Amino acid sequence: MKTSKKKESTRRPQENNAEGNNEEESELCPGFKDVDAFVKYGLGAVLSATKASAGLPQAGDDYDFYRSFPGFQEFCESQGDKLLHCMSQIMQHHGCRSHIRDQNKLTGVEERFDLVVDSNDVILERAGILLDEADGVNRSQNPVMPAGFQPPKIVVSSWNRKGSSSRSETFRLLHAKNVARPQLKFKEKVDNSNTPFVPKIFIKPNAVKPLPSYFSNKQIRKERPEDLDVPAALADFIHQQRTQEHVEDMFAHPYQYELDHLTVPESLLSKPEPQMYKPMAETKLSFIDSLDDLVTLNEKLCRLSEFAVDLEHHSYRSFLGLTCLMQISTREEDFIIDTLELRSEMYILNEAFTDPSIVKVFHGADSDIEWLQRDFGLYVVNLFDTHQASRALNLARHSLDHLLKQFCNVNSDKRYQLADWRIRPLPEEMIEYARADTHYLLYIYDCMRAQLLESNHGQPGLLQSVWNKSKDVSLKKYMKPIYTEESYLELQRKQKRSFNTQQLTTFRLLYAWRDKLARQEDESTGYVLPTHMMIKISEELPKEPQGIIACCNPVPPLVRQQVNELHLLVQQGREMPLLKAEVTLFGPHDTSRGSEIDRPQDTADGKPGLKPQKKNYGIQFFLIHYFTFLEEMETPADQESLSVAQTKARRIIESFENPFRMYLPSTGVHVNKNAKFDPSSKIFEISKRWKLQSIEQQQKEMEVKKKSTEEAKQQAKKLEVGEVTPKQSKKLMKSTEKAQKTEPSAKESFTPFDYAQSDLKVFDGSKAKDDTQFDPNRQAQGFRKKVKLYSAGNRSMSYLSGKSNRGFRHNWPKR
């Protein structure tokens, strides 16, 4: 016992009491009760060793000095051998190469370092595997999946773990690379053409206003330009000519009239009694994948007063997206419809979906309404959106998870939210996940209607507003993405990136290539070339195809296939002349981005303008009014009628800086020298146009100055007709000009001063006779001026040499 105690004390000095045999058997390892005690002791040992190593002499003069002592040298060698022996034992334990002591003296350090690095990799890899197994993620586990499909990939991440449970659940991303493309089985091919979306409806159940003839006549709808062997431009022209008379019908909502005249009955505006849902284990579930089952389901739905609907969508391997699953729940049973199999027959459900006496309950139906129109031609009349009701009640959150937790006390499982819903047959876990989205929705619908009435003191106003907002959601129309020459500018504005001419041209070409290939292959733009990779290529402008591959991690399959074509597009962008201008914002909230392409262009009437943009109407409005204002000021008719004050105001306005200077490049901009002198380049054309405009502006300013000086001379001659006025001093002239500036008068009320009534002997220095009578007409103009001049001091510079008038008494008028 004494020897065992000594061994225990050497292992753990802090434990002085001996433990019994039963306790020793329950220990993790000799001397340690559990993992925490072992980790705590290990961290303390590592910390003490680190501190001791930091106290050793550092490499340099100190180490060389201590190394000269034989005792220090022997100590270092003995400790070094012990460390190498310990490291070799650890490597042997993990199956690594452990010949760390028997090394060549010349290359021993490098070889030992390589051995340590390899051993660290092996040990850390094993530690990661053991941690995954302890966390419940076994890499060797093979989940049970249908034959022919790959097992699901398990993604371990921290943002999607549930914090309520002790053991964190991980997000399961179900996907399968071997899924056959469901688009190949569709009876009607997916229309990815660059034409507006035309509704698929051809039969209108529950119609108050009949369906237009364009939709009911199948012969007109079959005449599509895609079926003709003609060029694309001619096909678009033929399509426009054929559909010109049906334009209003083509793009109108088929149930616009019915929704506008829809009235909510009083029974739906009164307080309901919430009907409790059945447990999922006791509720019947039907999987609909045949036409007969779909017809039977439609007949059941037409006999009900309400049912809940939800959709599962896939958008990564399709340009427009695919609706893969539809869930419908009633009070008694649940239905799951395979919409990939019944895509062309889903229009049958329009009979129940458009019945105004049946309430269709959705949650967040903004996207669902558009997907139903795009894929099936289905429309919804009498919709109740629980998302809009949640907003009206000002709940903490508006998601379906929050509503399930608040009203049903159910924790929804969102592990399959990002699963690939094209998988067939569907695993049981995915079916249960899809079923739960609608199973509790009708009970939530009852509870929210009751809360809306209670929060508004029993008045139906708040509930009526939710019905109106839900009706607005059902009036939404699906809009197909249309490519235009300026579509890339919208994406660039969202990314908030400023490109030069070469980068912007490359970005435009890559955007067009991505859109064209995505439509042809029926793949999403994110699958063909993600936006962040496209921006990276546009910024770097790689010179070789390998540079394009290096900008993409991971490399998309279509990029790897067509990397040579992408390289040609990048080269085409690099050939553009380089011109980078500073981005000037028109205000603190302006997000528009001026580029080099948006340079002033000559319009049809020869006046300078701007190249029209799609969303810069405010700038164009300001510039057009500025030019019209300048043209009105430059007309000779206005120049003749301008007064002195108006001419001065005009000169002040002309002195302001030209607002078009913001479009000019700054002084530190790099411009290609060859492009400056090449007449065919855009830079040469722009610089020449601005030079001509600046010369014309200078000539106009010179003409205006000449005319103003001539007018001033003529006005002065008119004042001097019949009278010879003495030449005033410069000081007096400046003071009169200041007085005119401070008190400008209009042209109609201005009367020149009559010098015939003035006493001209004042300027000779002789004493003038004072008039005892006050003349308001004579002194009204210059009363303040005289006081300002004469009260400046005993001797003013404006006086001429003469007698001093001290003690002279003026006869001022009494107040």
From TrEMBL:
GO cellular component, one term: nucleoplasm
GO biological process: DNA repair; exonucleolytic trimming to generate mature 3'-end of 5.8S rRNA from tricistronic rRNA transcript (SSU-rRNA, 5.8S rRNA, LSU-rRNA); histone mRNA catabolic process; nuclear polyadenylation-dependent antisense transcript catabolic process; nuclear polyadenylation-dependent CUT catabolic process; nuclear polyadenylation-dependent rRNA catabolic process; nuclear polyadenylation-dependent snoRNA catabolic process; nuclear polyadenylation-dependent snRNA catabolic process
Location of this chain's protein in the cell: Cytoplasm; Nucleus, Nucleolus; Nucleus, Nucleoplasm
Main subcellular location of this protein, as a coarse class: cytoplasm
Keyword Iron-sulfur in record: no
InterPro entries: 3'-5'_exonuclease_dom, Exosome-assoc_fac_Rrp6_N, HRDC-like_sf, HRDC_dom, HRDC_dom_sf, RNaseH-like_sf, RNaseH_sf, Rrp6-like
Basic and acidic residues bias locations: 1-14, 590-605, 704-721, 734-746
Start and end residues of each stretch annotated as Disordered: 1-28, 589-612, 704-752, 766-788
Keywords attached to this entry: Cytoplasm, DNA damage, DNA repair, Exonuclease, Exosome, Hydrolase, Isopeptide bond, Magnesium, Metal-binding, Nuclease, Nucleus, Phosphoprotein, RNA-binding, rRNA processing, Ubl conjugation
Keyword rRNA-binding set for record: no
HRDC domain segment(s): 500-580
Co-factor requirement: Mg(2+)
One example GO MF annotation: 3'-5'-RNA exonuclease activity
Subunit: Component of the RNA exosome complex. The catalytically inactive RNA exosome core complex (Exo-9) associates with the catalytic subunit EXOSC10/RRP6 (via its N-terminus). Exo-9 may associate with DIS3 to form the nucleolar exosome complex, or DIS3L to form the cytoplasmic exosome complex. The RNA exosome complex interacts with cofactors C1D/RRP47, MPHOSPH6/MPP6 and MTREX/MTR4. Interacts with MTREX; the interaction with MTREX mediates the association of MTREX with nuclear RNA exosomes.
PANTHER family: EXOSOME COMPONENT 10, POLYMYOSITIS/SCLERODERMA AUTOANTIGEN-RELATED
Family: Belongs to the exosome component 10/RRP6 family.
Name of the molecule in the record: Exosome complex component 10
Phylogenetic classification of the source organism: Eukaryota, Metazoa, Chordata, Craniata, Vertebrata
